[in-house]
Design goal:
Radius of gyration: 23 Å
Number of domains: 2
Shape: globular
CATH topology of the largest domain: Metallo-beta-lactamase, Chain A
Largest sheet: 8 strands, mixed
Structural class: alpha/beta
Number of helices: 14
Strand content: 15-25%
Helix content: 25-40%
Number of strands: 24
Amino acid sequence: MSLKISRILHAGYVFENDGTSIAFDPIVENPFSRNCHAFPSVRFELEQVRSLRLDAIFISHLHDDHLSLDSLDQFDRSTPIYLYCVFDELFAMIKALGFAQVQRLQVDLPVQVGSIEIIPRRALDDDVDSLFQVRAAGLNVLNVVDSWIGPETIAQLAAYAPWDMVLWPFQTMREIAVIAPSRAGMDTGPVELPDDWAPQLRALAPRYIVPSSCQFVQEDWSWYNHAMFPVTYRQFAQEIGAALPDAHILRLDPSTSVLLDSEGLTPAAPLPWVIPVGPQDIDFDYRPGLIPPSTADIARRFAPLSEPDAALVLDFCRDGLLQRYRDMELAEDSYFQAPRLWRLSLYGHDGDATVLYYRTHGDQIVLADQTDEAPGWTTELPLVKCHAALVLGESLTSMYMRINDHAFDAATQALLDEADIVDDPLIRCLFNDAIGAYQAAQLERLLARPAEKSTTR
């Protein structure tokens, strides 16, 4: 008996054994999550996706590059959905889309689907995500998705060693470096893999390791493509291969399929509904020390907002933001517990900025007049991206927000060096308590379709 493993995209896979077919974190959009572009590029034959009859779909967590209602909308509504999530809202959304069987996954509680057993395992941040142990045909496969693994879980999983295959999240993301490049500095040193990767993989002792997840880049013009993704496939294969000389490092690009059995691995027919586009043997191009373009230049890359949409953003920043800020509980060690002058700059398609000033003190905030006073905190972003976060639930990592990219006096800079970037008032007002905002925006749009265009099946 063998287990067929096929890559969809990013953290998405199809596992097939003895007539049972299961998908994990299926994304069938390109781009997905607003501006994540498949890397290498693919397109999807959605008519074929709609005709699939999967035995189940398993979703590891609620992030929109794993749980997308636009993607789930393409699948047959009789498909059971198993989701690891602590928030009831996401289960309700999937049911509202028309899926009748939506089940909550629990750590260490096995789920048997036909000939395949799936056991959710505890991730380091178990309030957010999970990993999957997959057992079929006498084989053990660990799908780490894009989780970090804590010492208790790695000890639990090591008891199953040697593993037949591990799908390992090989890429790290420098989110803070692109949000606050001035704070990150000119990092020109060599890229190092996280210290715990090799020891954890040695404990698992897999026969095959697949560099998995993070299979995307941003828009082709984006400086993020050379600043956010430091690890290459080449480096991962070289360093992990040297640390685990008995393991085989296997790259699985979208649509690629393999048959895994106790004897080894053989190529299999690719997924017919995932179509590679252009060169597939490509790698990440990290450029340490890259100087980012200005936010004004980035804003010019996007189409202008309509007047009503621009007004919606500015009304929020002048009014709604103030109420949200006052309603939130501020951490005792927050930089904003002391009086601060915050400057927010919103750049339009023409590259010009609308600049707003706020005076904050603890959980109090007021809109201030224009001033020549030096700010104690600065935030800037394209106007269109603020609209996308407000209306479409776009996530922080794709908004091209820039924080404290400004020359401060020495005393202010010393305080900022100790501050937490995500203490930013706009980040907190947009994203604190915004559970499933992206999926909620998707659901509203999908349910608003004319009945004849609905894809309920």
